[in-house]
């Protein structure tokens, strides 16, 4: 089974190589084995993890104390995303545009379909809602789901790595080809924020709607009241308001460009239509 990961090598920026691409899959497999030891190990779970490491920093205007945190100016960091199942990582760039950094491990995913058809084509089916399933499962990779391991369900994660951080510094240190290859959208830094969320969010909202809800509430309440936690709570509240009935979990992580995005709501009309179209069951 393939693990997707970029081996980042930068011409003008040296940093200590790590073995994340080995340790993270082993950690996921260890978690899977821990599921096996539980009394009730027939169910499964998913996971999306984000690891942010500052790999370069320059003294800023924080004297006499300067902490090279990944969200500070004059820092360059490496972002590693590991993913199993249908939770999701969404990164919002400095223009306010949302980028999916993970893809659901569903039977409809062409990579997953090709992988699992090596085991059998008879296990693919469509449920009464028109959603493709692998046997009885919506996810083709997960922790647990012990009864389906022999049929190809695995906890081995997809891995992807990116460079994030201060745009001015990135443009000084990275070549044009490196920026295109390693930064999100090829924009070269000043990313606004990262969202980690469950399918209870993404089943109801597009990635851009999630991003816009965060930005709109920050713009309305302003700093410091509009913390990442408050904005994440607003995403969950919106999902609940429009009738979401699955577990809705959302985590917002501020990055270097937090609060610096343009005042623009790309999905405001769509969200308004969702609110107007939803009728609570008790009022039908």
Automatic annotation (TrEMBL):
Domain PPM-type phosphatase: from-to ranges: 1-255
An example of a Pfam family matching this protein is PP2C
UniProt-listed PROSITE patterns: PPM_2
Q: Which Gene3D superfamilies match?
A: PPM-type phosphatase domain (3.60.40.10)
Query: What InterPro entries would the database entry show?
Result: PP2C, PPM-type-like_dom_sf, PPM-type_phosphatase-like_dom
Q: Which domain of life is it from?
A: Eukaryota
Instruction: List the molecular function annotations (GO) for this entry.
Output: protein serine/threonine phosphatase activity
- Can you say what this protein is called? PPM-type phosphatase domain-containing protein
Task: Give the originating organism.
Answer: Cerrena zonata
Q: Taxonomy-wise, where does this protein's organism fall, top ranks first?
A: Eukaryota, Fungi, Dikarya, Basidiomycota, Agaricomycotina
């Amino acid at each position: 089974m393939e693990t997707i990961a970029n081996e980042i090598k930068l011409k003008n920026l040296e940093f200590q190589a790590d073995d994340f691409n080995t340790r993270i899959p082993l950690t996921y497999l260890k978690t899977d084995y821990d599921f096996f030891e539980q009394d009730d190990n027939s169910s499964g779970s998913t996971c999306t993890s984000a690891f942010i490491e500052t790999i370069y920093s320059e003294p800023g205007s924080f004297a006499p104390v300067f902490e090279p945190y990944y969200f500070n100016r004059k820092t360059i960091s490496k972002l590693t995303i590991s993913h199993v199942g249908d939770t999701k990582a969404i990164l919002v760039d400095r223009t306010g545009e949302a980028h999916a950094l993970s893809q659901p491990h569903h039977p409809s995913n062409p990579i997953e379909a090709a992988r699992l058809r090596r085991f059998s084509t008879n296990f693919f089916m469509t449920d009464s809602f028109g959603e493709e399933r692998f046997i009885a499962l919506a996810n083709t990779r997960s922790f647990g789901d012990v009864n389906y391991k022999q049929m190809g369900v695995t906890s081995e994660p997809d891995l992807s790595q990116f460079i994030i951080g201060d745009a001015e510094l990135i443009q000084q240190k990275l070549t044009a080809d490196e920026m295109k290859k390693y930064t999100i959208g090829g924009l070269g830094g000043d990313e606004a924020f990262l969202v980690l969320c469950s399918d209870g969010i993404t089943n109801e909202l597009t990635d851009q709607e999630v991003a816009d809800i965060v930005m709109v509430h920050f713009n309305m309440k302003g700093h410091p009241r509009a913390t990442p936690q408050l904005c994440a709570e607003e995403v969950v509240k919106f999902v609940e308001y429009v009738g979401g009935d699955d577990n809705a979990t959302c985590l917002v992580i501020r990055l270097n460009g937090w609060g610096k995005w343009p005042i623009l709501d790309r999905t405001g009309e769509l969200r308004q239509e969702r609110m107007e179209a939803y009728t609570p069951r008790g009022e039908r």
